[in-house]
Amino acid sequence: MNFKHKFVFLLPGLIVLIGILIFPIIFTVRLSLSGWNSFNPELDFVGIKNYIRLFTDDPRFWESFFRLSFLAVTTVFLQYIIGFALAHMVWKDIKFKRFFRVLFLIPMMTTPVIMTVIWRTFFHESLGPLNDFLSIFGVQPQWLSSPGLAKISIIIVEVWQWTSFMFLLMLAGLLSLPKEPFLAAAIDGASPFKKFMYVTFPLMAPISIGAIIIRLIEASKIMDTVFVLTSGGPGTATETSSFYIFIKGLREFQMGYAATMSFTYLIIMIISLTIIAKVLTKVLMKE
Amino acid sequence: MPKLYTFIKYFCVILWSCFVIAPFLWAISTSFKDFNSVTGGATYIPWLQFEPTLDGWSVLFKPGSQGGINIIGPYFNSIFVTFTASFISIALGTLSAYALSRYTFKAGFVQNNDITFFFISQRIMPPVVLAIPFFLFLSTLGLLDSLAGLILVYIVLLMPIAVWIMVDFFNRVPKEIDETALIDGCNPFQAFFKVVLPNSIPGMIVAGLFCIIFGWIDFFFAFILTFTNVQLLPVKIVALNSSITPWWSLSAAALVSVAPLIVVAFVVERFLSKGNLSGALK
What residues of chain A lie within 8 A of the CB of B115, using their CB? Predict the structure, then answer.
């Protein structure tokens, strides 16, 4: 085939993407070396001052980063377990199969911020239905204003929202599995548990890895839910990296420092996701 | 044993269904309340527990001057931005995906897989990292607070999805289709547009659905990059979420804005059951 044609196909997309992205990325790096803030909005050069500040004098950033890691890993773990379980349950032999499938897909179609606004009324301490229900047991938890429960509220909302995406990926995977291994297992008289452990799960391993990584990537950006549900509060109990950068950059207008944090955060994200992908592949593909 | 399993299965599925439906039922119920029935504590059943009113719904259709929340403008903005950005992403993404699936590229150590990875890896980019430079970038171009600016940003968000789904799709479209067309005397472009493209409609629909979902549900960029001129739906609704929230109109607005995409759930399920989605999502 002709040499030139392939570039006509490839380049428009590539150029548009790079064209829109290249400026922001270079600019972020440059900005991170400047002291741009609301008093001094210009691109001066302060060297690595911002980086020194970040690594030696900003525990809040690192706390928010560990909080984010905790939230991302917990929610994705729960989503994977629940999503896989649900997908397996509605895979075959269930009444109203299509009804349940549609229902389980719905949360990912809804706008996270908008549903979070609803969840916020749901968790309301005196007027919400959750505490109304719990009052039967005589407890009135302060869902959004105590540090521990605020984290749990975010986990609940995130799991509600995104389990359906995991469910979709896992169900699509299950439906694409070859039939032969299952026939073989049935002939051998394997119990459902054994069938799952020795046939379904190993066959799903590559799909699981893909799905977990996709979800981790998306979960590492948790921001909308935090913004609406708790605004990082109480105090900084639910502040994630993105939210902290957002506050520094676009609320306090410390653009230079925010760019430093952004760039560091991006690098950490890329490195840790690569490591996670490698480890997951090792662990799940062992069999 | 099988009986126990069946019981557990139905129990779990029904339990999760309740969890999924709960916020919707609560929102529906709340949307028919007024100030007194909201502040009087949690109630659920109209007529029995509270007197339903249509206030929450009627304000949605009143102009702002009469104390209404005008969500029709933002609604159309959201639709326009989502569809335009999805369309451009799919058009460009499909072409690139076709090139990546059919031709070999080599420039030093960069190969096809690296280019594909470059496209997809844009999803790793946290929105907040892009937000600050985009903010300054668009204000330099004078595109801050405009539909065009938002579309530009959304293309970056959506093209990775389109490329990801389409590369995989083209890898499963037999190469013989193009080759036959080429032998019949088409040039590569004719072969693509006349033969390959018509066979790729299912893949493009799946890619389109995902672009629409991820475009429609974005909040952050719309929130940062627009102010008053152009408002998208999520921003408008979150703005209602102030200290003394009118929960009833908030719920009604939320329901109206999530409704169109619930239709998408039905379409996705159709594709899933027919087996068209399984390949495209692996």
Answer: 10, 14
Q: How far apart are CA A45 and CA A48, in angstroms?
A: 9
CA distance B221 to B230: 12
Q: Tell me if A132 sits within 8 A of B42, measured CB to CB.
A: yes
Residues A79, A216: Cα–Cα separation, whole Å? 11
Of B225, B36, B261, B247, the C-alpha closest to A24 is B225
- Whether A85 is in a domain gets the answer yes
* CA–CA dist A181, A178 (Å, integer): 7
Put simply, whether the predicted model's pTM sits higher than 0.90 gets the answer: no
From the list B16, B103, B133, the residue facing A24 with the nearest CB is B133
Q: What is the CATH number for A235?
A: 1.10.3720.10
Taking alpha carbons only, the member of A197, A213, A205, A214 closest to residue A177 is: A205
CA distances from B241 to A29, A179, B14, B135 (A): 35, 50, 31, 24
In a domain, residue A2? The reply is: no
> What residues contact residue A6 under an 8 Å CB cut-off, 6+ apart?
B99, B102, B103, B105
Query: Which of A86, A176, A262 is opposite residue B282, by nearest beta carbon?
Result: A176
What ipTM, to 2 d.p.?
0.85
Contact A172/A204 with Cβ under 8 angstroms? no
Most B-contacting residue of A10, A30, A124, A231 (CB-CB within 10 A), to test interface: A10
Domains and CATH numbers, chain B: 2-53 (no CATH), 66-280 (1.10.3720.10)
Distance CA B153, CA B131 (A): 9
State pLDDT tens for residues B104-156.
887 777 777 788 888 877 887 788 888 878 888 888 888 888 888 889 889 88
**What's the total number of domains in chain A?**
1
